[in-house]
Write a structure and sequence with these properties.
It contains three helices and five strands. It has helices at about 5-15, 55-80, 125, and strands at about 20-25, 25-30, 40-45, 80-85, 100-105. Strands 1-2-3-5-4 form a five-stranded antiparallel sheet, covered by helices on one side. Strand 1 and strand 2 (about 25-30) form a beta hairpin.
Length: about 130
């Protein structure tokens, strides 16, 4: 494990972490500590790496398996209408914890809210391209 302070590595180093919902040999699943919606979860590799592009093929497979399992859990517990799946890869992309993690964000139908554009809203001035046509 790295010597830097990493909240995800600290979860793994804890002798018994009640935050880990599921795990496999390469990755683990937790609920986000600052959720943007009910059920917002994080899929995290065990190895401390900063970028998705540093992950091995085995790590990627393990991460995606947990992503599927997380969706099944959230479907049962929260019954969302849809999902956003995202990775902030690097500081310029908004990554604040320098340990790769995949966000699984459940979305819910909300009266008066137009969800079009989804992840495109990370750059608001480019998001609603359909209104410029």
């Amino acid at each position: 494990m790295p010597e830097i302070s990493c909240p995800f590595c600290e979860i793994l180093q804890a002798s018994s972490s009640d935050r880990i919902m599921l795990e496999n040999e390469e990755a683990f699943l937790i609920e986000d500590g600052f959720p943007v919606s009910g059920g917002h979860s994080l899929i995290i590799p065990r190895r401390h790496i900063g970028s998705f592009f540093e992950a091995t093929e085995g790590e990627r497979v393990a991460l995606l398996k947990l992503l599927d399992q997380a969706k099944n859990i959230i479907d049962k517990r929260h019954k969302p209408s849809a999902y956003n799946i995202g990775i902030n890869d690097g500081p310029a992309a908004g990554q604040t914890v320098p340990h790769l993690h995949i966000h699984l964000i459940p979305r819910y139908e909300q009266s008066g809210i137009d969800p079009r554009g989804g992840v495109r809203w990370v750059i608001p001035e480019k998001a609603d391209y359909w209104s410029e046509q």
